[in-house]
Amino acid sequence: MEKYDIEIADVAMTVRSDENEDFVGYVVAEIDNMIKQITAKNPRCSKLEAAILCALDYCSEKVKLQKKVKNLEAQVALYTANVNRLKAENAELREKLDPAKEEKEQ
Q: Which domain range does residue 58 map to?
């Protein structure tokens, strides 16, 4: 775990993360930009309120993406089951064809 000195919305702090420096920097920049956009659109919005709105937005997006992932995992499981069923059916049909092939050759 690495320590990083960051600054978001003019607030400096040190954080620890398992992520690399580029990733941490990217996330910090995203959050800082979002807070700046929120406060620029609504000057009466404090940085704290903007940070909360930012957190709500990212959390909402995370929940939506988790639902999508769950649906995609269910689809993959269904597709995998169908592929396995078709492979078994294919093998069964090949076995049925092999004896017929041998009979024709004799």
A: 2-105
Q: How many residues does the chain have?
A: 106
- CB-CB contact of 51 with 37 (8 Å): no
The single residue listed with the structure tokens 């690399």 is 20
- In order, the DSSP letters of the chain are -EEEEEEETTEEEEEEESS-HHHHHHHHHHHHHHHHHHHHH-TTS-HHHHHHHHHHHHHHHHHHHHHHHHHHHHHHHHHHHHHHHHHHHHHHHHHHHHHHHHHHH-
Which tokens is 33 given?
């930009």
**How does pLDDT run across 64-79, given as a tens digit for each residue?**
999 999 999 999 999 9
Q: What is the domain count for the chain?
A: 1
pTM: 0.69
User: Which tokens belong to 18?
Assistant: 């398992």
Do residues 1 and 17 lie in contact, with contact meaning Cβ atoms separated by under 8 Å?
A: yes
